[in-house]
Amino acid sequence: MIIGKIRADQEAVIESEIVGLNHNEKVEVVLDTGFTGFLMLPSDLIKRLGLQLIGNRRAILGDGSPVSFDLYLAQVVWHGRIRNVLVLGAKHDGALLGMSMLSGSRTVLEVIQNGTVTIAPLA
Questions:
Q1: What does the angle CA 38 – CA 96 – CA 46 come to, to the nearest 5 degrees?
Q2: Secondary structure element (H or E) that encloses residue 98, with its range
Q3: Taking the alpha carbons of 112, 42, 68, 38 in that order, is the dihedral positive or negative?
Q4: What is the pLDDT of residues 36-93, one digit of tens each?
């Protein structure tokens, strides 16, 4: 089971361990149910981890504008196992965890300040 919290700004966050070529790093990620991908990470973190660039991906933002992101391959420790995932490179500082990462999980949010975020695998 993965446990996180609700921050004062009402963002649901968990800590996720990302496996890179250079080292592993634990990163606070914001759960974003409007993001259908796996992960979006800032470019400086991608460089530190030494993630492999595998191409680019076009996407439509929430405001309808089209964008292009660099696409990387990474591994994440998820429910105690290594999981291969696609990562979008972002120019902003924050890390986002999307619905593809949550697929196959039950996610419960206690939406109060410092409330609990619980992610458990479905049987």
A1: 80
A2: none
A3: negative
A4: 999 999 999 999 999 999 999 888 877 888 989 999 999 999 999 999 999 999 888 8
Alpha-carbon distance of 13 to 21, in angstroms, equals: 25
Query: Which two tokens mark 100?
Result: 């593809």
DSSP per position, 99-122: HHHHTTEEEEE--STT-EEEEEE-
Which H or E run contains 49? helix 43-49
Strand 96-97 to strand 24-31: parallel, antiparallel, or no bridges (unpaired)? parallel
Q: What is the amino acid identity at position 102?
A: L
CA-CA distance, 30 to 43, in Å (whole number)? Answer: 16
Res. 22 pLDDT band, cuts 50 70 90: confident
CA gap 29, 96 in Å, rounded: 5
Query: What span, in angstroms and rounded, lies between the C-alpha atoms of 25 and 39?
Result: 14
